[in-house]
Amino acid sequence: MELRSKKIVEREDIYWERFGLWHAMGLTKEEFDAPLIGVANCWNEALPGSYHLRELSQRVKDGIRSAGGTPFEFNTIAICDGVAQGHVGMKYVLPSREVIAASVELMVEANQFDAVVAIATCDKIVPAMLMALARMNIPSIVLTGGYMLPGSYKGELVLASTITKKYGEVLSGRMSREEYVKLAYSACPTCGACPGIWTANTMCVMTEALGMSLTGNSTTPAIGSRISEMAYKAGRTIMKLLENGVKPSDIMSRDAFENAIMTLMAVGGSTNAVLHLPAIAHELGIDLSLEIFDEFSRRIPTICGMAPTTDRYSMKDLDEAGGLPAVWKEIEGELNLDAITVSGKTIGEIIKEAHGVYGGVIRRRSEPFYREGGIAILRGNLAPDGAVVKASAVSENMLVHEGEAKVFDSEEDAMEAVMKGRIEEGDVIVIRYEGPKGGPGMREMYDILQVLDGMGLSSSVALVTDGRFSGSNRGGAIGHVSPEAAEGGPIALVRDGDLIKIDIPKRLLHVEISEEEMEERRREWRPVEKDVRGFLRIYAKNVSSASRGAIMDG
């Protein structure tokens, strides 16, 4: 096999200078002459999904060394969406995806490593790693860090999202503050990805469905011997991929992306995947339009019931029921079975070895939790370029809804209205200027939905925004409205009292305004100006629409 790390040192002086610098760290000539493997880690002390990754990286490096490679570990940033929720910090979370991808690319390409193992667990970090690996297109594998064990309070499943949701019960007097604090202490018992099928676990599942992680990785807990063994195997596997010259473009084919989207629908995954999968595919020259998501949503029912689809199940239950192979077995006739994975096996071969337990967290296709896929794409005069809703987390009575708009130009203004009791049953809350450009940063409207849920309003109040949502949110929450308000999209023209119609089965998002009235308002419209500095200014100038994955491309 040709190693690019050796090609660049064919000139003797470059060879010895590079060796001399690394010899300062104790590197031997034998290690220097071996294949050089980058280990991209995102360990830090500010994120429970990354806090345990330092130990896992050691096991990855053990695996690399045992197979004849020399590992070089380096770190990149990683932000916890939950810690950034509900304040200005959330503006920086989606933009961090681009920074992480670029930082991995810069480090790997500067050092000309021969292959890469990427270690990540959470929302933006996993897709960022995949974007970088696709962009560089050298032999690569992802180790996802595993799920957090679910919490329990008074015998009931509690998760991180439960903390915010239950605050609505505190506000309405249904829970004491003392009980609320006790619940918060119980919600997150271990490190790892928050254990619902929220964005972190959704993207870990997408990684396995794309074929970029080992079978079972996405449903392995973050603590214990299994994840340690998985890390070691990832280190050994990267050496096989390098030896055989297998690149991300060989694995992440269009067939693989279709498999990932079908898996997304079956598990009821996060709407954020509709941003991330197109962004990853873009790096490989593959166009994933919103239409393909809706096409598979019509074909693939939601057969998994992890939170927020239900309150009964977590990733631990999916793990114990057979993991992704058990899910794939139920939709086998739809999948592209010849798609290969980093294990060397095809999806079809993996399914043949699957053993599932059905009737609990995984249901038979004939008896789904929701008759269509977990995510639906809406269009209409309010969202000509599309909008996204997690249909499997919408109550039956809210699938079709009509209500008067209450319009806010920021999440904070809308939250204040909720807290002061100005939102009534039947209302449609419109939050705008929260898109990729307008925020900037496309914040998640997480807190407001959780509080509405806790106040008992999620089954009677809808929310429409050019921002996005946490994978843990439920209710009539429609996001990614495109074009966004900052670009003069129709959402910028909505006024208090306008009648908004939502019809999820018919994929419709419509505001009852005539074309003439819309044009009159457009002539009067002036964009909201925001004083933005630093990276957010760069991001706002270069980011694309949410309908294209909110990518920075030129």
Task: Describe what you observe in this structure.
The chain has helices spanning 4-7, 12-23, 29-33, 53-66, 81-84, 93-111, 125-136, 160-171, 177-186, 199-210, 225-244, 248-251, 254-267, 273-283, 290-299, 315-320, 323-330, 347-352, 411-419, 446-454, 515-524, 534-542; strands at 36-41, 70-75, 115-120, 140-144, 151-153, 156-158, 376-380, 383-389, 400-408, 428-431, 462-465, 476-482, 499-503, 508-511. It has 554 residues and is α/β, with parallel strands linked by helices. It has two domains: 34-150 and 189-352, 3-Layer(aba) Sandwich (Rossmann fold); 376-548, IlvD/EDD C-terminal domain-like (Glucose Oxidase, domain 1, 3-Layer(bba) Sandwich). An eight-stranded mixed β-sheet has the order 7-8-12-11-10-9-13-14. The protein has a four-stranded parallel β-sheet with strand order 2-1-3-4, sandwiched between helices. Strand 1, helix 4 (53-66) and strand 2 (70-75) form a beta-alpha-beta unit. Helix 7 runs parallel beside helix 14 (273-283), helix 8 packs antiparallel against helix 9 and helix 13 (254-267) crosses helix 15. The longest helix is centred in the middle third of the chain and has 20 residues, at 225-244. The mean pLDDT is 97.
- CATH homology superfamily of the largest domain: Response regulator
Helix content: 25-40%
Radius of gyration: 23 Å
The count of strands amounts to 14
Strand order of the largest sheet: 7-8-12-11-10-9-13-14
Distance between the termini: 34 Å
- Average per-residue pLDDT, rounded, comes to 97
Q: What is the CATH class name of the largest domain?
A: Alpha Beta
CATH topology of the largest domain: Rossmann fold
CATH architecture tag of the largest domain:
3-Layer(aba) Sandwich
- Main sheet specs: 8 strands, mixed
Oligomer: single chain
Number of domains: 2
Protein structure class: alpha/beta
Number of helices: 22
Percentage beta strand: 5-15%
Which outline best applies? globular
